[in-house]
Amino acid sequence: MQVLDRIDAFRKELDAVRAEGKTVGLVPTMGYLHEGHASLIRRSAAECDVTAVTVFVNPLQFAATEDLSTYPRDLDRDVGIAEEAGAVIVFAPPVEEMYPGGPVLTSIHVAEVSEGMEGASRPGHFDGVATVVAKLFSIAGPCRAYFGEKDYQQLAVVRRMTSDLSIPVDVVGCPIVREPDGLAMSSRNVYLSPDERRAATVLHRALQAGAAGLAHSTDLANASEVMAAVVASEPLARLDYAEVVDTDHEYRLVIAARVGTTRLIDNQGVAK
Fold it and tell me: Active site includes 37?
């Protein structure tokens, strides 16, 4: 396992891998890894010759009111999880390495795909995501990059940005990993108190209720109302949004809510 914190060293290492005719898998993360991240790493290790994990808490995607300073961090733990799952390189740069010139004057905006849902609730968030992912892709070079489907809209933004800018990266979406009671794994789950942790399952229950409704009717507005009603039944939860996205091959139910002070997101696909 190599742990690198400089862009040049990371870029040279992956260039050398490709020069040997080997393939590179990239798993971009903000650290505090859990089983969801580990599943991405294992998928990459199974499909690519060398897997690299990036650990970087990106300030560009946090609003002034959000939890950048308190976002959980534990690099030694992350390295252990990454190595056990099959990664051989961890790139963990400090902020001044990624953004050495002070304020970042260049930003990538993916129109339409980034609007609504998370884009409406967290203005500027997806510009920060797209900008840092484009930078990581530029540093890493041609590879397969693995992202979890829990961040459904983020995955769509990254795919569109990569396609529009002709970046030589194959973006791979991977299924959501859940706790036994249905809660989607998230680094933010650590913020939940025991009571809030029990209440947080309301997101998954809301998705299941909305999906059951879609099995009998394609009334998307009604499915959204069903999800909202389930969240409203939980005193510790406050709904942000509950929507249904109509794609070519499926309906995707998407939900966000605060449980206590912790903001959680989740989603579920329903085949047409």
Answer: yes
